Amino acid sequence: MRTAAALIIGNELLTGKIADANVLVLARALRLLGVQLKRVVMVLDDIDVIAQEVRALSSSHDWLFTSGGVGPTHDDVTIDAVALAFGAKVISSAPMEQMLRDAYGDKLTEGHLLMARIPEGARLASNAKMPWPTVVMKNVWVLPGVPEIFQAKLPLIRDELGADQPFVSHAVFTTLDEGTLKPMLDSVVAAHPDIEIGSYPRWSGLEYRTKLTFDGLDPARVQAARDAFAASLPEGAVVRVE
Amino acid sequence: MRTAAALIIGNELLTGKIADANVLVLARALRLLGVQLKRVVMVLDDIDVIAQEVRALSSSHDWLFTSGGVGPTHDDVTIDAVALAFGAKVISSAPMEQMLRDAYGDKLTEGHLLMARIPEGARLASNAKMPWPTVVMKNVWVLPGVPEIFQAKLPLIRDELGADQPFVSHAVFTTLDEGTLKPMLDSVVAAHPDIEIGSYPRWSGLEYRTKLTFDGLDPARVQAARDAFAASLPEGAVVRVE
Q: pTM for the full model?
């Protein structure tokens, strides 16, 4: 199975100024490609910490996606950290410099030109809809933290990674609590080792008590696990099946 | 400075079924206590991976807070993982068993009793508002993933950790982009090495282009950094100061 990790960078997240919005959309996009997101690490704007995580996560997963720290200010250290992780120099990309000159014209500053910095050896990924390049260093995709732009890059990732069989997900919503439904659940888990089964109690709301999820790559097997579980519940305990 | 890490556990997060809601509230609570949240790691429901992270994060931070995986079903492996991390056995807590017997009465199942499992040597933290105990193993707080309950545990953490000087945060909102404001920002960063300064461009909206944040433990120093930056901007470039 193809695997991925995400490295979410930024003091603003760990100091509670904003909530991360990128893990959810990345996770969903990867599910549709059949890629398993195995680990997310969130760190401060610290070049050494970022470099160490880039090295560790990129070597233990097929892809690493970083989010944040790619602007021109002092707290944007992701490009330097990725370069450091791979022992590469940071250089200025001629095509990116040209795009910045075209975009800013007379108003161009030295600050703006810092946005053309890339690790030596990185390639630039882009498509017609997303002309500003995305820096890809080996298997590391360097993405911006701003959620609107992060999200706009996902189709590019999809095109480059290509879709395997997507993960399929089904669910059963029940009136039973986890302690009560556990024996039925354990039977289905034991009989469907290839299906990833999750149990999520609901704390508030009256519609249901527990949501059970069934995920896997083979649609028929996922559906069979879901149906076997629903059939094992007592009369009236199934609120809804998805 | 006192430090903390968070370990966010659950397939539902890494498969994009739900967005984490606990990092933000934990980060904010810790800021008010003057505790620096340095790292967040999000992993699947895998006992060995969780145990390894518990060992690493608890030894490198003053506190580790885990979120998720504490129910009675097959995908709830946090208690076992925390026990494994410290080479402890898992035992059933007599007071928690009694509370479960009282709560469920006739409807009690073996499944419910699994919620009394704790690592041997753990202590139980509770207060009048939160009678159901929170398991604390050495410096590891084992918290539930359900956001309403996670949030309800924060006052207990606040009482136990105690408040140092809280972090103070101010902000300047400006019409300038990051490339343009960089020289002014660099001056203020150089003159205020004790202040954590962040720069956040806004992608959409017309009110401002970049938000600058100034954080630290000394209120006067934080305010001085903010005011020095605001004063260095050209006429009309400051939209608002907080």
A: 0.95
